[in-house]
Amino acid sequence: MNAVEVKNLKRSYDKVEALKGISFEVAPGEIFGIIGPDGAGKTTLFRILTTLLFADSGTATVDGDDVVKDFKRIRQKVGYMPGRFSLYQDLSVEENLTIFASIFKTSIKENYHLIKDIYQHIEPFKKRRAGALSGGMKQKLALSCALIHKPVVLFLDEPTTGVDPVSRKEFWDMLAKLKKQGITILVSTPYMDEASLCDRIALIQEGEFLKIDTPSTIVNQFENTLWSVRSGDMYRLLKDLRSHAYINTCFAFGDTHHVTIRKQSLTENGGEFDHKNLYQYLKDKEHEEIDIKSITAGIEDCFMELAG
Description:
Radius of gyration: 23 Å
Order of helices and strands: EEEHEEHEHHHEHEEEHEHEEEEHEH
Strand content: 25-35%
CATH superfamily of the largest domain: P-loop containing nucleotide triphosphate hydrolases
Number of helices: 10
Structural class: alpha/beta
Distance between the termini: 35 Å
Number of domains: 2
Shape: globular
Strand order of the largest sheet: 6-7-8-3-9-10
Helix content: 25-40%
CATH class of the largest domain: Alpha Beta
Largest sheet: 6 strands, mixed
Number of strands: 16
């Protein structure tokens, strides 16, 4: 039995289609990532799977239970960490955790072993009010509250948004440990670099899944010629690259631009279109400090290609 099964799930808000027939399965003990930008439908999907929202059509089960018919059972055995910090700001760390434990008829002492690796980071501040915690500490408290009853499936909606890089790494290290305990984890994120930390991922855009597979398989299926290009004037470079007849796509990636080359335009006057051709084109456009390299695609390159 799959931990999560979703078939043709649809949900609209007035005239906006948030989900357009989503279907997928998640195996027990898997870290399944849903990767996409804000507004892609990630939060709507998670709210339906945690029984907080009804779908317009389609079906979904969590640990074999239907999200509509068996919502009470599902709520007892899933953990949900929403994207926005939603704990009691005026209560202390310890008080928040005690409340969540009591809701599920357990205690911090009884299930301390479940949250020890996470909670020990914030335990020295257990008397501090939750609203006064840093972003990384709020994240650890929210995760501890979601785990205190040992859920079968854990839903994490953009858990690392707005968190510093060190806390992000620590958080993913924690998820790897939770996976070893047999907990199935569904995590959504807008950060493409976190995709490689999942067992499988679904790339989502405007309520539709573009592709579902392992991160390595998605990257290996990228077939376009990909170059990284830089110059002294990056803004003008972007416009000049996009106006070149042989450039298929060009997007800004940090301090470089990633370009793909049109397959039907890889030959020019009987010769190959290579770095030298592009270098000369940019020289003619009066660019300086030009740097062109062939690179391997990442998940973000694959997403941009699939999104069109």
